Amino acid sequence: MEFKGAMGGLYRLTEWITRFAATNLLWALCSSPFLFFLIMKLIVMSQQLTNESLQMNWAMAIVAPLTLFPATAAMFTVVRKWVMGDSDIPVFRTYFAGFKQNYKQSLIGGLFYTLLTIVMYVDYTVYMTQFPNLQMIGVIMLILLIILFVSMFNFFSMVAHYHMSTRQIIKNAILLTLIRPFRVFSTLLGSAVLVYVGIRYPVLFIFFIPCIIAWFAFFNFYGTFLKMQEQLQKQQTDGELEGKEVAAEETKN
């Protein structure tokens, strides 16, 4: 039975709320070890327990590649279908199919991003606190750290969208961030706004915020993908026309 008018709009809105909430809850469930240590870190930070805070950092670094990255890649698998127009997919089945299919790549990518983040963050901290004369290097490390973090949006989008080796996905995710920064940094800005809203209303993190960020990130990525594909097709068409013109000239001669 299909509703029309205001009832139809309300029904569709309820459907989308349910889809986002269900996907977000699946993500929270599969990311629960990482989220547990994150919550513990926030608690010990509020109590100014430095050693315990460092321990939570290491705990999050260990479990992130095993849980957070595969769970996020699975969430991108679901939102990819939505962005591409397939909104009636079974959320539960699609999520766990993406989790299983992309687990290895997201695990390896998670190890790469986690290790590189640790190295860059330690370098940034050392240069900014221990070497006052070399703080410019610390600033450069911070910029590289931001680029690395932003490239994760492209990494998860590519894991969900392409069949490539993990090395190619990581390389292309970073390159796409550098050559097409506007859409990716608009994703970062939009995510920052959503996180701010989530800080004011924490319950939204449980049901909506991460999934909305993933949807927005893939929406921007897919827009970039379509634009690059259109440019490539135009170049191929122009090349074919140029080839035909050259052939025609040679025939006349």
Automatic annotation (TrEMBL):
Q: Which residues cross the membrane?
A: 21-44, 56-79, 106-124, 136-160, 181-199, 205-226
**Keyword entries, A-Z:** Membrane, Transmembrane, Transmembrane helix
Entry-linked InterPro entries:
DUF624
Iron: is it a keyword of this entry?
no
The answer to whether UniProt assigns keyword Nucleotidyltransferase to this entry is no
What is one Pfam family matched by this protein? DUF624
- Name under which the protein is recorded: YesL family protein
The taxonomic lineage of its organism, from the top, reads: Bacteria, Bacillati, Bacillota, Bacilli, Bacillales
